[in-house]
Fold this protein.
Amino acid sequence: EAAAEGAAPVASSSPSPVSPAAPAVAADAGQAPPAAAEKPSYKDGRYLGWGYCRHGQIQAAVVIEHGRITAAEITQCGTRYSCDWIEKLPPQVVSRQSPEVDFVSGASESADAFYYAIVEALTQAKAK
């Protein structure tokens, strides 16, 4: 049995260099298309959206240049709390190229309203 166990690794080691090379190429080919599919395409312009929470509403704007988000801002704050609590969120939209922003402790509903305002604005900006 020991000789058979020793022979098996030797036999399997010679096909091994060929086998890993083929899956690596297939894995690389499989990974490239999703990266291209992930790239959002937006129409250039300035777009406004509204987000709502039980404390009021927030209007946000996004600016798209060359298909990318170049600016985001809170244009109207109609919540019963100051939007100073969420003032760090607009730059996150630009840096992440996404409405996905951080959770804000103590202002989670305002942050949610901002998120939905950005989602609405980006929905208008989507290239069709």
